[in-house]
Amino acid sequence: MPTTRDETHFGYETVPLAEKQGRVDTVFHSVARRYDLMNDLMSGGLHRAWKDALVTAVNPPTKGHPGRLDQKSGRGFALLDLAGGTGDIAFRTVAAGGGNTRVVVCDINEEMLAVGRQRAEQRGLDHAVTFEQGNAEELPYPDRSFDCVTIAFGIRNVPRIERALAEAYRVLKIGGRFLCLEFSAVDVPGLEKIYELYSFQVIPRVGQAVTGDREAYQYLVESIRKFPKPQAFARMIEAAGFRRVSFTQMTGGVVAMHSGWKL
Ligand SMILES: C[S@@+](CC[C@H](N)C(=O)[O-])C[C@H]1O[C@@H](n2cnc3c(N)ncnc32)[C@H](O)[C@@H]1O
C-alpha cells in the first residue's frame, strides 16, 4: 500500500498522488489505437468472455428493439460505464438490452473515446451510446441518475479509488447496482508460475511489438500486482456505502467481478 496519504503507486513505482493520473493518461494516449487488438492478443480472446459475464450481471431489460431507443415508452435503462474506453461494455449492453437501453461511456482520455465513437458509428449504435470525457473521481452527473454503474479494468488506474467508489454510489439510483471487473490474484497452484512468467516475459514484449510501447504494458502487469486483493477491495466497496457486496473470481483468479447494491 502507499507509504503516505499523498503517495500512490504507478506500477511498482511510488509516485505523488497528483502525478499518477498524468502518467496513466500518457499510457492510454499511447496505446489507444491498438488497445482493442492488444486485449485480444494478450488474453487470447478471454477478455470477451469476462466482459460478457459482466453484461450478464448488468442484465439490461430486453423490452424494445435492440439498440434502438424507444421514444414512446418513457424511462429507459441507463448504464454508466466508467473508464469505458473504446466502448466494449457499452456495445455489449446495448446488444443484450432492448430499445430502452442507453449507455454513457465516461472516460478521462479523449483518444480512447475517439476510438469508441468511431466504433459506435461503424456499428450504427451512436444513438444508444454516448462517449463523454470525465474523471471517475469527480463525475459530471447529478445524484441518482443511473440504474447501473460498471467499470471494467479501469479502477486500478484511478489514483483515488475511494473517491471513484463514492462517486459511483452517488450517481446510482436507489436499488441500482455497481459492477466492477478487475484483474485479481491467481490462486490456482501451478497456474501462478505460468501466469507470472507470461505476465512479465511475454506481455511487455507483445506490447512493444504491437504498440511500440513496452512501458505501457510493463505498467499493466505491475499495476495488477499492486491492486488490492479481492477481499480488501470488497471492503472498500462496502466502505463506500454499497450493500450485499460480493465478488466472483474467474479463470483461476486472473479476474474478479465485484458487485454492490445501493439500497
Ligand atoms: C484498461 S482501460 C479499460 C477500458 C474498457 N473499460 C475496457 O474494458 O476495455 C482503462 C481506462 O481507464 C481510463 N481511466 C483512467 N483513469 C481514469 C479516471 N480517473 N477517470 C475515468 N477514466 C479513467 C483510461 O483512460 C482507460 O480508457
What do these coordinates show?
By secondary structure, this protein is α/β, with parallel strands linked by helices. It has helices at residues 17-31, 35-43, 46-58, 88-96, 110-123, 161-171, 191-211, 214-226, 230-239; strands at residues 7-10, 13-16, 77-82, 101-107, 129-133, 146-152, 172-183, 243-250, 255-261. 44% of the residues lie in helices and 23% in strands. The strands form 2 sheets. The chain has a 7-stranded mixed beta sheet, with helices on both faces. A two-stranded antiparallel sheet has the order 1-2. The site of S-adenosylmethionine has 20 residues, from helix 1 and helix 4.
Spans with pLDDT under 50 lasting ≥5 residues?
A: none
Could you tell me the mean pLDDT? 93
Structural class: alpha/beta
Tally of individual helices: 9
Strand residue content: 15-25%
> Which strand order do you get reading across the main beta sheet?
5-4-3-6-7-9-8
Ions, cofactors, ligands: which are bound? S-adenosylmethionine
Largest sheet: 7 strands, mixed
Radius of gyration: 18 Å
The number of strands is 9
Give the distance, in angstroms, between the N- and C-terminal Cα atoms: 30 Å
What would the principal axes of the Cα set say about the shape? globular
Q: Which percent bin holds the helix content?
A: 40-55%
What is the N-to-C order of secondary-structure elements (H for helix, E for strand)? EEHHHEHEHEEHEHHHEE
Keywords:
263 residues, alpha/beta, seven-stranded mixed β-sheet, two-stranded antiparallel sheet, 23% strand
